[in-house]
Design goal:
The chain has eleven helices and 24 strands. By secondary structure, it is of the alpha+beta class. Among the domains are: 181 residues, FAD/NAD(P)-binding domain (3-Layer(bba) Sandwich), CATH 3.50.50; 93 residues, Rieske Iron-sulfur Protein, CATH 2.102.10.10. Strand 1, helix 2 and strand 2 form a beta-alpha-beta unit. The longest helix is centred in the C-terminal third of the chain and has 28 residues. The protein binds flavin-adenine dinucleotide and FE2/S2 (inorganic) cluster. FE2/S2 (inorganic) cluster binds next to loops. This is (2Fe-2S)-binding protein. Pfam families: DAO, Rieske.
């Protein structure tokens, strides 16, 4: 199972609501043991990978899904699962930077994804709490909301400008989208996984890590025990495990935090999102155990920004100031990748990789974008050329929309690289470690990442990220080593939790 969220004295069970409520629904995993050949190998069983696999099966292609962990235990198992075409102030941005036609294309792709999920839920009779609900983007800057309302309408969406946002009286204005939806993403995807398991043209191998991909005609996908030969490969691994197009320089990881809260009284209907850098996201979830309010926010670049435990505390304070909190039931955290021009990468992965496709860079909006990736990539692989793929083309050049951000983000990664190395080499740090604490110490000129667990044992691994050699930083809430350059994460024993790194940190002798 995916790593639990830890972190000392923080309130709430350290796991996502989605994982906690489906723990007993996972069948025995069937790791890949033997070589075989298929039309398409899909790597990653989050919403993008499973949506791709089910769409490919509907088109008659044979499919194998390879998943390092269990189904929907990555970002998809820790999302807030709003299924919306409202994605912050995206339409104003798209209209300005990409033009009106592409803004409309983006809007209709997202709306089609909500409909697709609803259709599949009906067809497969999935009990996953899908409900149509309005979604509000609120702000204290009415001008910003007016522009977004206007751009969303111009993109063909039914958006309305409102000045009353009941749970957030202090908000000056909001744009309201009707007929959006929320659901339980893991229940939805476990049902799709079952469908694939029961299908002779598909196979699903969990606990199977892809270690290498050799592009070609056909492609070879190597795992720890066997190899899959496939005409086409879809990388739905979050950050692509094969980077032939410099994705590390064109998108950056943003981590954020979620609390699952029981209230005294009924939680609000509708979904809410406060725009701006320090966003807040609010929705309700209902199940047989009652109702929970999900509150998300406190985002920051992975591996940067100080104590992560403090972020949970700030989120709790914010929630208590606005709602009558009875109990914090769950807390969790995860990260998504933000492209410099704010548009996901869906399509051919890069030069020299004709038969390899990617789906990534969903910018915190992967429920609809991941569903769309599945629909569009399956059509492309099946020989159609969906027009929307031009918008999402991973090899697009959008200097107007991306130049400034590309420069600042890469300068930031370079600066992290230099300052962290200098700090590590200059600090003769041999101070003691408390349980739950991690530090980088120097041993024979080499930086070693040491962490002490709750039992008092010290774990020591190389502090040099296996992706591009930045130095990792300790994450105190999750008790992990996080890389400030491009967001790879490792557990205290060095095992990769999140890419772009695909190799573990080697163990070191305890200094
Ligand atoms: C806090 C937070 C809240 C969010 N809330 C929303 C929301 O309300 N609405 C919305 O639309 N979006 C939301 N998002 C974004 C959304 O959750 C993600 O965009 C989406 O889940 C990404 O899906 P995915 O399939 O690309 O990735 P994942 O779900 O991470 O799937 C990738 C899979 O690939 C596997 N993998 C990786 N490497 C390998 C390998 N080498 N071999 C085999 N398998 C591998 C991983 O184990 C993982 O299971 C949120 C994001 C965050 C961070
Ligand atoms: S993630 Fe790129 S150097 Fe660590």
């Amino acid at each position: 199972m995916a790593e639990p969220t830890r972190g000392g004295d923080l309130p709430g069970e350290p796991t996502s609501l989605w994982l906690a409520s489906t723990h007993d629904d996972d069948p025995e995993p069937e790791p890949l043991e033997t070589d075989h050949t298929v039309d398409v190998a899909v790597i990653g069983a989050g919403i993008a990978g499973l949506s791709t696999a089910i769409n490919l099966r509907e088109r008659g292609q044979t499919v194998t899904v390879l998943e390092r962990d269990r189904v929907a235990t990555g970002v998809t198992g820790k999302t807030t699962a709003k299924l919306t075409s409202q994605h912050g102030t995206i339409y104003d941005h798209l209209r300005r930077e990409f033009g009106r036609r592409k803004a409309s294309q983006y809007a209709s792709v997202q709306e089609a994804s909500i409909d697709e999920v609803e259709r599949r839920i009906d067809e497969l009779d999935i009990d996953c709490g899908f409900e149509r609900q309005p979604s509000y983007l609120y702000s204290n800057e009415p001008d910003e909301i007016e522009r977004e309302t206007d751009a969303a309408r111009a993109a063909g969406l039914e958006a309305s400008y409102v000045t009353s946002v009941p749970p957030f009286e202090r908000a000056a204005a909001a744009v309201r989208f009707d007929d959006q939806a929320w659901f339980h993403p893991r229940k939805y995807l476990l049902a799709i996984a079952d469908e694939l398991r029961d299908d002779d043209g598909a196979s699903l191998h969990e606990e199977t890590r892809v270690t290498d991909l050799e592009p070609g005609t056909p492609c070879r996908v190597r795992t720890e025990r066997a190899t899959v030969t496939a005409r086409n490969v879809v990388l739905a691994t979050g950050f692509p495990i094969l980077d032939r197009a410099g994705y590390f320089a064109r998108m950056h990881p943003k981590r954020s935090y979620v609390l699952g809260i029981r209230l005294d009284g009924a939680p609000p209907e509708g979904m809410y999102y406060r725009s701006g850098n320090n966003y807040r996201s609010v929705r309700t979830h209902r199940d047989e155990d009652g109702e929970l309010l999900l509150v998300g926010g406190e985002n920051h670049k992975t591996g940067q920004g100080g104590s992560t435990a403090e972020r949970y505390r700030r989120l709790e304070t914010w929630a208590r100031e606005r709602f009558s909190v009875d109990e914090i039931a769950y807390r969790w955290s995860t990260q998504d990748y933000k492209p410099v021009d704010k548009v996901p990468f869906i399509g051919r992965a890069g030069a020299g990789t004709e038969n390899v496709f990617v789906a990534t860079g969903f910018r915190g909006w992967g429920m609809t974008n991941g569903t769309a990736a599945g629909r569009l990539l399956a059509a492309e692989i099946d020989g159609e050329r969906p027009a929307a793929l031009d918008l999402f083309d991973p090899l697009r050049l959008t200097p107007k929309a991306s130049f400034g951000k590309t420069v600042t983000e890469n300068a930031d990664a370079a600066s992290e690289f230099t300052t962290d190395w200098v700090r590590a080499l200059l600090t003769p740090d041999r101070s003691s470690l408390d349980p739950g604490e991690g530090k980088i110490v120097r041993e024979g000129g080499k930086p070693i990442a040491c962490a002490r667990d709750a039992e008092g044992d010290v774990h020591a691994v190389s502090a040099v990220c296996s992706h591009m050699y930045c130095l990792v930083e300790w994450n105190d809430a999750e008790e992990s080593w996080d890389c400030p350059c491009h967001g790879s994460r490792f557990d205290p024993d060095g095992e990769v939790l999140e890419g772009p790194a695909n190799e573990d940190l080697p163990a070191r002798d305890r200094p």
